[in-house]
Amino acid sequence: MAQRWDFDPQYSAIQNKIRTSTMNLSKLLTPQVDSNKLNYSALVLRIGFGFLMMNHGFGKITHFNDYAPNFMNFLGLGGEISLALAIFAEFFCATFVAFGLFTRLSVIPLIFTMLVACFVAHAGDPIGKKEMSILYFCAYSSLFLMGPGKFSLDAVIFSKRNS
Predict the structure, then answer these.
(1) Minimal CA–CA distance to 40: which of 135, 154, 160, 146?
(2) What is the pLDDT of residues 83-135, one digit of tens each?
(3) pTM for this structure?
(4) H or E element: which one contains 8?
(5) 67 CB contacts (<8 Å, ≥6 apart)?
(6) According to a count of CB atoms within 10 Å of the terminal CB, is the N or C end of the chain lower?
(7) Nearest-angstrom CA–CA distance, 77 and 60
(8) Residue ranges per structural domain of the chain
(9) What pLDDT, in 10s, does the model give residues 122-144?
(10) Are the CB atoms for 143 and 105 separated by under 8 Å?
(11) d(CA 112, CA 124)
């Protein structure tokens, strides 16, 4: 004998809502990555971390003479050259990253700069002082692995070249 709720239209509507919300939850929890979501993720990472790092580099450009005498000489080239290399990475490479131009090449100096900042410049500091460089390192490493995505100048340039 069939139960009363098997034929109740209101109960059937509730079942459909439960089924739909369960399917939406399974989409949220699935380990598969949609290529559009990956492209948007790369865009958000590039723009966010690119422009935030440009701010650090711009500060070093505008106060070059103040930073240069005390800047860490990690390669033995002198404080001014070390500062110029940091500015190259933090401003110019970050600009390229933000616009998605030569992204994988541009993140290499940024990754190196963040490793130096974390493990050399802030070697004796607590984790709170190293945290920002670690976050930037993780973001730039992710961009190196995933690439710039289709919403980038790299995609525009190289898709025309390959056509």
Answers:
(1) 146
(2) 999 999 999 999 999 999 999 999 999 999 999 999 998 889 999 999 999 99
(3) 0.79
(4) none
(5) 60, 83
(6) N
(7) 18
(8) 1-32, 33-162
(9) 889 999 999 999 999 999 999 99
(10) no
(11) 19
